[in-house]
Amino acid sequence: MTVRVLIADDQELVRAGLRVLLDTQPDIEVVAEAADGAEAIALARRLRPDVCLLDIRMPGTDGLEATRAIAGPDVAEPIPVVVITTFDLDEYVYAALRAGARGFLLKDAGPAMLAEAVHAAARGDALIAPNVTVRLLEAFAGAEPASGPKSTGSAGVIGPPGSGSARPVEPLTAREREVLAAVARGLGNTEVAGELHISLSTVKTHIASLMTKLGARNRVELAIWAIGEGRGRRD
Question: CB under 8 Å, gap of 24 or more: what pairs does 27-32 form?
Answer without folding.
Answer: 27/1, 27/2, 27/3, 27/119, 28/2, 28/3, 28/115, 28/118, 28/119, 29/2, 29/3, 29/4, 29/5, 30/5, 30/6, 31/4, 31/5, 31/6, 32/6, 32/7
